[in-house]
Amino acid sequence: MAASPALTVMIAAVRKAARGVQRDYGELANLQVSLKAPGDYVTAADHRCDKVLRQELAKARPGYSFLTEETGLVKGSDPDHRFIIDPIDGTTNFMHAVPIFAINVALERKGEIVAAVTYNPVSDELFTAEKGAGAFLNNKRLRVAQRKDIHEALVAYEVPHRGGPDLPLSRAELAVLQGKVIGIRGLGSSAMALAFVAAGRLDAFICRNLNQWDMAPGMLLMREAGGFTSDVDGEASPMVTGNILAANAELMPQIKQALAAARV
Q: At what angle are helices 167-178 and 251-262 packed, to 10 degrees?
């Protein structure tokens, strides 16, 4: 895989930030944890990773804006470029030593995601994608799975935390899906779930109430791996609605039809 200069910069920043995350992962008993909102935690590791990513990216691409989970929107002098960052997607997993989380970085150019990195620092799996250049896992080309029947599909579904606004809907959707698919998994990280669908490990991913930093890299991974992403309930962009369904072309309408039955 021949990475562009922009993607090379992103990979270098992610790998440098990952060193601190790997160190903190081994010292979980000493982590400083804060509650941002019900079911939404942040650790000192999140903040440190966010800081390193912004420093390294700003050094290489001065003037670019940032949108990060921990810092919010930081406007730069370049109106066309923005890095979208989630320093640790899957913080609850990270806090419990569940090795399914990722450093998530996307580059947006004039409103379009053109480069993406999703990196699991525990498994050392580096998922990358660039617009028109394909998606890769540690330099191996990715393709979504080609299953065409919903009854053969292994689906990732993120259940909202207790008290979440969509909990009743989630229960109804799970009940419908359990009668349709071969199995349902909850990974606890939308970044990793999208990467797994892009890699063909999962057949689909469904989640509501996400932020742009949760899914921006994964949406490009999906597209470059031959998959599709859509709003769960319609055709709008998940980046606008926050609700995402990721699957191949054959499964997408079948899953949408099944989910619609849960809302009747």
A: 120
Select the more confidently predicted residue: 95 or 101. 101
> Which residues are registered as beta bridge partners of 186?
none
pLDDT the model gives residue 28? 64
Instruction: Tell me if residue 37 falls in helix, strand or coil.
Output: strand
Q: 3.30.540.10, 3.90.1230.10, 3.30.420.270, 3.20.20.300: which CATH number matches 5-141?
A: 3.30.540.10
* Residue 250 DSSP symbol: T
Fold that domain 150-262 belongs to in CATH: D-Maltodextrin-Binding Protein; domain 2 (3.40.190)
pTM of the model: 0.93
Residue 75: half-sphere exposure toward Cβ, Cα within 13 Å? 2
Helices of type H across the chain: 5-25, 44-60, 91-95, 167-178, 190-198, 212-224, 238-241, 251-262
CB 198 within 8 A of CB 127: yes
User: What is the separation of C-alpha 102 from the centre of its chain, rounded to a whole number of angstroms?
Assistant: 8
Q: What pLDDT shows up at residue 190?
A: 97
What counts of helices (H) and strands (E) characterise the chain?
A: 8, 15
